[in-house]
Amino acid sequence: MALGHSKRPEMRDPTPSLVLLTLGLTWTAGTRDEPFFSSRYPMGSMQEGLDCDVLDRLYDRREFLGIVLDPPDFRPGSWIGAGKAIYDQARGEFILTARPRRAENRVRGYAANIYGSKTGMEYRPVATLSKADVSRIAGMEIHSIEGTQLLRNPDDARWHLFLSVDTGGEFVWGGVEWETLLLTGDSLTGPWNSHGIVIPNDREFDSSQSRDATVDVIDGTWYCIYKAKNSSREERPALATSEDGVDFEKRGTMTIDGEDRLAFLSGTIFPSNNGPVLVGLETKLSDSRKRSPDVVYADDHGIGHGGGPPSNFVAYRLRADRLDLQTVVRVPWTPLSPYERPDHPLLGYSSLLIDPHEDRLLMYVESIDPQYTKAMGLNETVERVLAYGIAL
């Protein structure tokens, strides 16, 4: 499963022009005046050293590194991804989570896998929590697992594993009712303790789904940007914060540049001297109540998968006080590998971290494979995890 292929296709050009909003930040880092991100937590998903002045050039510096994880098999509806990557200093290795999924026998997302690596490319299995395990630990029936986030608590070094789980009353392809569950433990191999649903779907703006979070800790505050879907099936980014990584306060849905926008955001929230910045992918969402002719639907509930415009590579400044995301960089994603469909290269999940061994970012994305994918749709695509390097 952990392949770490090094073959790289010829780089494509030209890249689209960037949309850049100058933040006008200047402060001292070393002997030069330059903006930078930093975090000094000894055990977390953040590392010190990402300079803000390179944000507008990150996209142009992408380099395809290889396949990191393959799906369980290559039959339609088989996926791997929807995870988070960190570098854990205590273990001295990269940690990556992922959700494996199959369509046969209505299995869907059947586990939360944890992998380790010394290089950030060749990953080996460390632990797995099956859907049955999670249901037993949480004391509830879970139909499927999707987005996974794993961090160390900087206060006590315990692991916090956030899982997007389908808690609906009946089986539906794609799921209708999703919430975010929290498990904690001292070891990646368990035992795990359940804190129950910490991001429930209990507000008007997330009354259907509160899932697929991006969670990071900055200066003692846990920031959680998650996908909020209301009863009208409109999906927006929403913000929740916490002081302990367990009890979260929902702040509400977020605007982008002051405008209401249907979108799914996934990536990493980095600290900066001008506030947190989300770097990752943005998937523009159409009205999910309307069926797309480009998508094959699995049942009459009409849950889509894929289709629509390609994802954007983005960097957004997070203004928690205003519940607004301010554009720093926003550019359509163009694939650089043969493992991404030209028209629909990515599903939308991503995670980034600073490589402590090289002067680069590592970016992990869930790609839609062009060879094995039959069409856009829940049980039609084949998806795997790819790695990109971005020179700093």
Distance between the termini: 29 Å
Give the helix/strand class. mainly beta
Major sheet summary line = 6 strands, mixed
Total strand segments: 26
Tell me the radius of gyration.
19 Å
> Mind telling me the CATH class?
Mainly Beta
CATH superfamily: Glycosyl hydrolase domain, family 43
State the domain count.
1
Architecture per CATH nomenclature, i.e. the level-2 architecture: 5 Propeller
Principal-axes geometry comes out as: globular
What is the helix/strand order? EEEEEEEEEEHEEEEEEEEEEEEEEEE
Fold-level CATH name:
Tachylectin-2, Chain A
Percentage of β-strand residues = 35-45%
**Counting H and I runs of at least 4 residues, what is the number of helices?**
1
Return residue spans where pLDDT drops below 50 for at least 5 consecutive residues: 1-49
- Percentage of residues in helical conformation: under 10%
Mean pLDDT: 87
Key structural traits:
392 residues, mainly beta, four-stranded antiparallel beta sheet, 1 helix, disordered N terminus
